[in-house]
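Example for tutorial group B:
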């Protein structure tokens, strides 16, 4: 559960980032030469209105994913957010590679300075990819395990046994060989060896 909570924080953070950048793009061109926004402009061929719409839609979809919880909807709903983050991370690497910022400014440290300056943007894209993975696949594995356990328990025999404290308590009695058969049937486990 902690992994999903952490993933939700990363997804919400990206939604806040994209909403803020979309509002900046919609309201002014003052930040057009910042590395993140310039990267998005390069990828969208300068389509300001379309970029704002995509960013706001990506943010809305991401918030909906966290509200709904993991599932198949999340696969498609988180892709726009991840694509925006990857685009800006690649833009950061591009500007570090050419040794100047989008506005042409060349810092004293050149490539290394820009790389160090943009490293959080690159790492955030990587963190979002990990959160995306946790949100989708680890949750699905948990559901698969729970379903398998439910199937196993449904096939065993429950017998009422007084335990001394509460006459309603039940004790599970099952032969070890029978349990092996039930588990083998419900959980495809690779043979040992």
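The residue assignment follows.
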């Amino acid at each position: 559960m902690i992994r999903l909570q952490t993933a939700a924080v990363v997804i919400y953070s990206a939604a806040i980032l994209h909403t803020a950048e979309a509002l900046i793009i919609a309201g002014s061109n003052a930040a057009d030469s910042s590395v993140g926004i310039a990267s998005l402009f390069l990828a969208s061929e300068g389509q300001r209105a379309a970029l704002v719409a995509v960013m706001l839609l990506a943010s809305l979809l991401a918030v909906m994913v966290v509200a709904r919880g993991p599932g198949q909807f999340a696969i498609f709903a988180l892709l726009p957010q991840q694509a925006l983050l990857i685009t800006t991370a690649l833009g950061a690497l591009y500007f570090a590679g050419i040794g100047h910022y989008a506005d042409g400014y060349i810092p004293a440290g050149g490539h290394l300075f820009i790389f160090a300056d943009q490293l959080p943007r690159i790492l955030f894209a990587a963190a979002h990819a990990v959160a995306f993975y946790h949100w989708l696949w680890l949750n699905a594995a948990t559901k698969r395990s729970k379903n398998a356990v439910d199937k196993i328990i449904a096939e065993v025999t429950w017998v009422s046994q007084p335990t001394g404290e509460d006459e309603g308590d039940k004790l599970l009695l099952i032969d070890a060989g029978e349990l092996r058969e039930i588990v083998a049937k419900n959980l495809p486990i690779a043979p040992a060896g």
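The chain has six helices and two strands. Compare this with the pattern of hydrophobic and polar residues in the output above.
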